[in-house]
Amino acid sequence: MNRRLAAEFFGTLWLVLGGCGSAVLAAAFPGVGIGLHGVSLAFGLTVLTMAYAIGPISGCHLNPAVTLGLAVGGRFPYKDLLGYWIAQVAGAVAASAILYVIATGNGSAIGGFASNGFGDHSPGKYSLGAAFLTEVVMTFFFLLVILGSTAKKAAPGFAPIAIGLCLTLIHLISIPVTNTSVNPARSTGPALFVGGWALSQLWLFWVAPLIGAALAGFLFPKLEE
Length: 225
Prior knowledge:
Layout: H1 2-26, H2 35-58, H3 64-72, H4 81-103, H5 128-149, H6 159-178, H7 184-194, H8 196-200, H9 204-224
Helix pairs in contact: 1-2, 1-4, 1-7, 2-6, 3-4, 3-5, 3-9, 4-7, 5-6, 5-9, 7-9
């Protein structure tokens, strides 16, 4: 179990450092900023690369919502849920700490620090209701792709590609709405460093992804029947 938790810690660290790091450091860099498309791809690539690296060890969840969805879908034991969640959140916080040191290394303020938000803190000023629905739906489909691409009948070896591309697509859709969470750990790390509004809105980025993931975990086995 310790090996699995360590894999989840380092995998989630890579997800947040690669995804949020691209948003904080490279998205708006003068002249060569990677923008929404680059950040979306960065998040997808972190999952794709880690799925091949640690998938055989821990399953490469990197996300409390994914772990819950797999548990509801009968693919993961509930008794191991809390341990995975702790490792994932710890990895996200460690990544955010590393990113904070790097981002402030030239004297810059961290600003929003890739935190997730709604209302005035949504990139497109979308309402709480729009943000909640977006996070539920995006996480639901993320889990459908994960459950489907890792099913016994699925072609072996291709799941990381499908999952990474799915996460890229999710970011292309929802960055304007919430800055894209679909992952409570990814939301928690940056929020702890921003404080204030980011922490006060963090509840949505736990509740909505967990609901979406649980719905997918409940429904997918019925599709397989």
